[in-house]
Amino acid sequence: MILAFDTATAATVVACGDGRRVAWRRHDPAAGERPGHTALLLRFAHEVTAELRGSLADVTRIGVGVGPGSFTGLRIGVTAARALAQSLDVEAVAVSSLALLAWQEAEISVAIDARRGEVFYGRYVAGNALEGPRAVPAHEIEQLLPGWVVGDGAIRYRTEFEAAGFTVPADRDDAHRVDANALIALTTELKVTPIEQLLPDYVRAPDAKPRVV
Questions:
Q1: Hey, which of 38, 153, 169, 198 has its CA 20 to 30 A from 6?
Q2: CB within 8 A of 134, min separation 6: which ones?
Q3: What's the pLDDT score for residue 206?
Q4: Could you give the 3-state DSSP secondary structure of residue 47?
Q5: Residue 1 near residue 58, CB atoms below 8 Å
Q6: Nearest by Cα to 88 from 176, 187, 2
């Protein structure tokens, strides 16, 4: 079995594949609700493996979205992936959270809300990154090469993207959300990541600064 998850955004997405079927769970917090990564990630992992009549003991490879995205979400996801891979003695794979949204698209841009008036941006052709990932301020979106763009950053800055000539699907379109099949496919296809190299891709420095005493 392959277990994979992504916590780069407010959503908690967990998928399991056994070569024939894919079971998955997704939680999107309601307005004003905190992300459920901590409470739901392992619970979902147990549920999806059980749905395929297995358990965590049957997992042979673990994939995790390493960002860019929410600092807290990425820390939770990567820490869980490292702990599970080590305790189960299985392979681990780092997956770009932007590439997950670009999966199977001929040409597409991806924008994840980065706060601070920025998006984490990448442009992909046939699954290969041609640009990014990098943090792009909202006022510089007009400088990007227009095309299709998806992700919660595209939704938040729809006005700026559309003014720059981009096409943004409707807010509720599934194109903005990580697909369980993408999680399983990329975890299967990508090379194994040594556990010491399984790290979050923050792209920029964290918001919190150490106190000077």
A1: 169
A2: 120, 121, 122, 203
A3: 62
A4: helix
A5: yes
A6: 2
